[in-house]
Design a protein that fits this description.
It holds the Pfam family DDE_3. Residues 21-105 form the Tc1-like transposase DDE domain. The protein is an alpha+beta fold. The chain has one domain (13-136): Nucleotidyltransferase, domain 5 (2-Layer Sandwich). The chain has helices at 34-45, 66-74, 91-106, 111-121, 127-136, and strands at 13-19, 22-29, 54-57, 78-81. The N and C termini lie far apart (42 Å).
């Protein structure tokens, strides 16, 4: 991908991350598949997990791979799935909504600038804000 060119149409981006702050972020140009997600879990998410962490995922088929569960549980974390069709219970959707609004406001139109901007914006998500996303989704963040 030529990262110095302008974005001519709305491309599809996939972002995955953990939410204790915006932890272990990764953005892909295009949709995410099972192989990419498993690589993300093993190489990006698991190194940031601590024993006792809870990982909450929606019901995307790539999230339900046995190796994904094994990687998370080997790190001492617990994997839970949201009920089907329940975006209101997904705290990461609230964070992504804010991130998308920040990206629209910035108006970046060059791919390389977009990657750089996302890297800066994810650092603005503080742990207390993320705890609020959990609380507003019905979870006790403590």
């Amino acid at each position: 991908m030529d990262t110095g060119t302008a974005i001519a149409r709305q491309p599809r981006w996939s972002q995955v991350c953990a939410l204790t702050g915006m932890v272990a972020p990764m953005v892909l140009g295009g949709p995410i598949n099972g192989d990419w997600f498993e690589a993300y879990v093993g190489q990006v998410l698991v190194p940031d997990l601590r024993r006792g962490d809870i990982v909450i995922m929606d019901n995307l088929s790539s999230h339900k791979r046995a190796d994904v569960r094994a990687l998370i549980e080997a790190a001492g974390a617990r994997l839970m799935f949201l009920p089907p069709y329940s975006p209101d219970f997904n705290p990461i959707e609230k964070a992504f909504s804010r991130l998308k609004a920040m990206l629209r406001k910035a108006g970046e139109r060059i791919v390389s600038g977009l990657w750089s901007l996302i890297g800066k914006l994810v650092d603005l998500f503080l742990p207390q804000e993320c705890a609020n996303y959990f609380a507003s989704s019905g979870y006790d963040p403590d």
